Amino acid sequence: MGHKIQLTINGNSAEYEVEPRMLLVHFLRDHVSLTGTHIGCETGICGACTVLLNGEAIKSCMIFAVQADGAEIITIEGLAKDEKLHAVQEGFWEHHGLQCGYCTPGMIISGVQLLKRNSDPSDEEIRHGLVGNLCRCTGYQHIVEAVRYAAKKTNEAATKEG
Amino acid sequence: MAQKLVGQRVKRVEDPRLITGTSHYVDDIHLPGMLYAAFLRSPYAHARIKSIKADLALQHPGVVAVITGKETKDKCGTVPCAAAVPDLKRPTHYCLALDRAYFVGHPVAIVIANDRYTARDAVDLIDVDFEPLPAASDPEAALKSGAPLAHPEFRTNLAFKTEGADISEIFKKADKIVKQKLLNQRLVPCAMEPRGVIAHWLPGEQQLTLWSSTQIPHLMRTQVALMLGFPENRLRVITPEVGGGFGSKLNVYAEESLLGYVSMKLKKPVKWIETRRENFTGTIHGRGQVAEIEMAVKNDGTILGMKYHIVSDLGAYHQLLTPAMPILTGLVLTGSYKIPSVSLSVSGVFTNRMSTDAYRGAGRPEATYMIERMMDRIAQELKLDPVEVRKKNFPKPEEFPFATPMGVVYDSGNYTLALDKCLELIGYQKFRQEQAEARKQGRHIGIGLSCYVEICALGPSPAMPAGGWESATVRLEPTGKVTILTGASPHGQGQETSFAQIAADELGVKLEDIIVVHGDTSIVQYGIGTFGSRATAVGGTAVYEAINKLKAKGKKIAAHNLGVEENAVEWDGSGFAAKGQGKRLSIGEIALAAHLAKMLPQDMEPGLSATHFYEPKNFTFPFGAHAVTVDVDIETGAFKILRYVAVDDCGKVINPMMVDGQVHGGIAQGLGQALYEEAVYDENGQLLTGEFMDYALPRTTHMPWIECDRTETPTPVNPLGVKGVGEAGTIGSTPVFVNAVVDALAPFGIKHIDMPLKPEKIWRAIQAAKRA
Ligand code: FES
Ligand code: FES
Question: Residues B645, B695: one domain?
């Protein structure tokens, strides 16, 4: 039987009815049609399914949709504001941080989280912050550069505004 | 004229959809009324299937059908193998197992249900009575007499054997024979997107559409049509976004035919998405070669000859190219060196394991690893510098085109140049001094080199199983926009960008006015696909040649419309101009004229599009030199990577940023093999590394900073001068790590340590050396 839950996904609040065993990632993809969040393992290891849940990056294959009741979720589709890319997205484009793009949404969300915790990370800290996300294409170097770019860009914007 | 885009660091046009989550991979496609498939697969490596009881599954709410091998045997055909190997034993590879299962992961039954959870639930409700049988697991053990047989009907596990030439006379002339046994362990390709198929049968139109995560939509369509006995022209294959392949999707799989059959039977769209566990057990593996090598050398390091015996672990069945892998290894066996005599023998062995097949590099990383390890072994035995031994045996730049005893002709190269650049960047001489100092202090640092050459731009059709050309159609639309249809099937390599760069330069149009379409057999003319570092060198050349054809027609239209003779007009970078008259027509204006067709030369066909099927005359042979320095902790066997330098020569570079990306990613996979990855089967043929939890893919913190540089030696094989770079990193990198660790441990007299270089193995080697 379905359980009623309430979620705010990418700024839109709604009530949903879900099976208790429905994984959050399947719920987002199959029920809300937000297919930008990918599945690489379903066992919490690859990070392709990473989304922000109440501002924290989580692997959405590791929790049930019902556990997220009341939460605010941001997926890759909700990251750009008013058609303007998030600095991390921009960094990935500028620095060729992706090839096949499959790991990319999860990677970008983890990048966003890492910059929230540390606005000026060293390369080592960037690598540490993304250690939960697997990529088979890039060798990670351009991803590190992408996050570095985003950090610089965000800090520069903050200084200007400041 | 606008700046040329070829050679520029152009941002990729495919990225906006990928960084915003708005692209579509197979699993992102949803069709109304779609059903879901899940597979029951053999948990045993070798078992008799005594019975399959599906009643409980069928009674489960939401289950639509359960399908077994009995039903599909005559409906879905057999899984094809395109490799031509003489006297090859070929087990019949039905899409679902019949009375026996031959490997862990062998598909036995399919459940079709209304949703994916129900389909997976019902798999557990099927009762299969398996009787486990002895399994052939280790390939060398499988060759011993009395070993369990993978396919008892063949009475042997030897699928084929090729004998090498007798070169014993040459070996008699040697000052020294250097021998080594080297292992290239089995690997799992692990594209981050697992495979997946949607089949959609339209009974009215009598059309079957397959969306599949494949590298070869056109070849796959032909093969699946043959498997299903279905007309090829009514089968449409679409590869939407594909999340990596690395060779694992350069194949035709049972699931592709089976899903097509199920959709036709149930008259509904059906989706199957591979789980990661299925990907580990049921998608091809790579490598799996053990080699015994003997090199005949002079005291000065000159190589006289080489004997090479490969035992190749084929797995239970031949997938598309399985038995061809050790043969491909043979093609580049001599690497960057002049080795006048080679004797190669190959034993292809059946095991009750998943098939091996093309994984990034496909045969060439194996060859490169072995020859580059041997160069260091020779240096070690002769007490020479490994640089000196390599340089002594390089062909000189003026010796190109250079024919090797393996029957291929290297197109162009300057191996010393690449090696010298690499040595300079890593500071070779200085490192040797530091090493001597460090050794005095009891520190163990080492340096590893590799000088690779690879075969790319696969390839001339006579040398390929299914044609080695590539196709392109370039179409000018009436509004001047450019549509390129390519037969290649990029899945991360970025050809939507690199082909647009080529077209932008050749047509003088803006990048954003060009679209590159691929991966839909109903839209794109027949093509071969993306693998073997071929898409840009072969497919890009097809684009270039199609544009030339199109411009030849455009020139006639321009002359006619400008009212001058054809030889009085010339290309001015973005249109045709009448020489010395100040009159011109842009390519866009010519396109409109071609479509309005009011003022065309007599008897000329309207429209402005051209198709070219480009057949390469040879492979291309990119090369390069990689170097790594390491610091080994002899107390624990762990080591740190100090620096990594890669100097690659892939001919002319279209987009340096994308070339760097290919090199980085390739090195990550090479490092993965050298340090971490290993598909481990136990003696019963059970896969012990069947998940990311047990199979170690390199993560961010495992990768060193890669210092990339290049030399540029264009190929004469194609007009773009492009050689290809998709596999270079993987091919060049694996040996450097082992060479570096063995070099660091030279004071212990350690000769070799097999990959993956786990600290435990290194520690044990040190302990054994101390005892000796
Ligand atoms: S799909 Fe969630 S971590 Fe891999
Ligand atoms: S870009 Fe392909 S897996 Fe990361």
Answer: yes
